[in-house]
Amino acid sequence: MKWTKQAGPVEQSGHEPELSAYQRALRDRLLAVPVVPAPEPWQPVFERRVPVGGLLGIGFASHPDDGHDLVMVVSHDGHGLFDAVTGEKIARDRDPDPEDSTPDAVADLSCPGLGPVAGSRVRIAGLFGGGLHTTTADGWTLEVVTPAWPNDRVLLSRDGGLPHAGPHGERWWHIFHSHYSELRAVGFSPSGQTIAVATSSDISLWTRGTDNSHSSSAEL
Fold first, then answer.
1. 185: helix, coil or strand?
2. Does the global pTM surpass 0.85?
3. How far is it, in rounded angstroms, from Cα 6 to Cα 29?
4. How confident is residue 2, by pLDDT bands cut at 50, 70 and 90?
5. Quick check: 38 and 173 in contact, CB under 8 A?
6. pLDDT by residue (tens digit) across 21-67?
């Protein structure tokens, strides 16, 4: 009988490659910049983050009457709909049908709309996948960076994105630090008039639309 020698297990490196000097400098730069307010023309929609327990994801729609961006929030406690200009919570469904309660039940990751967008479906980005716009037609960009895993940071810029050669606060801004909850979704509305940042515990919105009343909406 002819014996064949079996190959041993493939040896794997015991450590990750070290960061280059350039990578370390970029990481240190991102770690050093504080959270700052978003620049003009962006304004916060809420005075503070809106708590949403067990948030799973968010999606955008457009109000059929006034054209305002709407933000649909999907959580373990049901579905809610916010006006992204005024911050008003305009619809709530605490007990959606089980087959429509989360977006993973359908191929396009959508849930049925409610309130003024009832009868349509809204695509939801978050825990189950999907995504939101990361750029606008007039040159704004959103990025999620993680220089100190697992805490994500959200950067807003007008310089085309990383590596952000200019000074912080001039063409790029660190507007959100998710050090307390898991980031779910970050992006612009299709209109480019709203920024949304959703974590597993709350939602923050910024608008450059009109009639912003800086609402302090109650919990979803």
1. strand
2. yes
3. 49
4. very low
5. yes
6. 999 999 999 999 999 999 999 999 999 999 999 999 999 999 999 99
Backbone angle region of 130, left / alpha / beta, with phi > 0 → left and psi within -120 to 50 → alpha? left
Helices and strands (H, E) in the chain, number of each type: 1, 15
Q: Which residue is listed with tokens 């507007």?
A: 175
**Distance between CA atoms of residues 31 and 34, nearest Å:** 8
- Residue 191 dihedral angles phi and psi, to the nearest 5°: -75, -15
d(CA 198, CA 205): 9
CA–CA distance, 85 with 45 (Å, rounded to integer) = 7
Within a 13 Å sphere around the CA of 107, how many CA atoms are in the beta-carbon half?
0
46 bridge partner residues: 215
Report the relative pairing of strands 50-51 and 125-126 from DSSP bridges.
Answer: unpaired
Neighbours of 19 (CB within 10 A): 11
